[in-house]
Amino acid sequence: MKKILSLLMLLVAIVTGAQGSEVTDLKTLSADHNVYFEDIVTAKVNAGTLFDSDYLLALAGGCNYATNKGTDGTIKKKYCLRVKGTSQDVIAFKVGDACTVTIYADRMDDREPVINTSISTASAIKGTKTLTSGKNGYATYDIPAAGTYYIIGSNGDCYLAGVEFDFADATTAPTFTTNLSATADVTVGVAEVFTVDTDNATSYQWYKDDAEIEGATDKTYSYTATAAGTVNIKCVASNKIGSTTSTVCAVTATAPTSAPTITTDLEAAYDVIKGKTLELSIVAEDAASYQWYKDDVAIEGATSTSYTFSASSTIGATNEIYCSAINAAGSTKSTVATITTVGRADCEVTNIKFSNGAYGAISNTGADDIQVPYMAGTEAPTVEEASINVSDGATYVLSGNTLTVTAENGTTSKEYTINAVEITPLAVSADVAKTEFTAVPSWVFNLYGFGENNGDKDYKGVKFAKKVDEAGNMRIAKGNTRQYWFIGAAKSITLTSGTAAERNIKVYRNGVQLSEPTKTAKKGEDITIALDETAPCMIMIESNQTGGDGGFTFYAIEAAASPIEVTLGTNGYSTYCGDENFTVTSGATAYTATLSGTTVTLNEIAANTVIGKGTGIVLVGTEGETAVLTPTTEAASSMELGNNLKGVNAETTSIEANAYVLASNGTKTAFVKGGSYANKTALLNKAYIVYNGGMQEGSLDIQFEGEATAINNVNANDNADSAAPVKVIKNGKLFIGNYNVAGQLVK
Question: What whole-number distance in Å separates Cα of residue 255 and Cα of residue 262?
Answer without folding.
Answer: 18
